[in-house]
Amino acid sequence: MTSETGSAKQADVLTDDEIKRLLSRPGISPDELLASKLIPISRNGLYEALSRGDIDSFRIGKKIIIPTAPLRRKLGIDAA
C-alpha cells in the first residue's frame, strides 16, 4: 500500500519536459502553475500573490491568465 501511495504522489509531479512545455506557452492558468509545483505555495497563497501583483496576471472575463515570460524571468528560468 505504501508503494501505491508513493506512486500516486509521483504521478502528480510534472516532469522537466512537461514544465518546459508549460512555460513555453504564452500564458497559463493558476491551476497549471500550482500543478507544476514551480512555486512552493498554497492555492490561497497564489491567489493572494496574484491580487497583490507579486505574480503578473490579467483577466479575460472570469479566467485568470499568468503570462509565462515574466514568470520565467522572476524564477530565473531561460525561455523554453
Can you offer a commentary on this structure?
With 80 residues, this protein is an alpha+beta fold. It has one domain (14-75). The chain has helices at 2-12, 16-24, 30-36, 43-52, 68-75; strands at residues 27-28, 58-60, 63-67. A three-stranded antiparallel beta sheet has the order 1-3-2. A hairpin with a 2-residue loop joins strand 2 (58-60) and strand 3 (63-67). It starts with a helix and ends in a 5-residue tail after the last helix.
Count every helix, treating DSSP H or I runs of 4 or more residues as helices.
5
Shape: globular
Structural class: alpha+beta
By DSSP, the count of extended strands is 3
**Portion of residues in helices?**
55-70%
Tally of domains: 1
Hey, roughly how much beta strand do the residues contain?
5-15%
Rg from alpha-carbon coordinates:
14 Å
Kindly report the average pLDDT value: 85
First-to-last CA distance: 38 Å
Strand order, biggest sheet?
1-3-2
Low-confidence segments: 1-10
Order of SSEs: HHEHHEEH
Main sheet properties: 3 strands, antiparallel
Question: Which key features would you list for this structure?
Answer:
three-stranded antiparallel sheet, single chain, alpha+beta, 12% strand
Offer a concise description of the structure:
By secondary structure, the protein is α+β, with helices and mostly antiparallel strands. It contains five helices and three strands, in the order H-H-E-H-H-E-E-H. The longest helix is centred in the N-terminal third of the chain and has 11 residues.
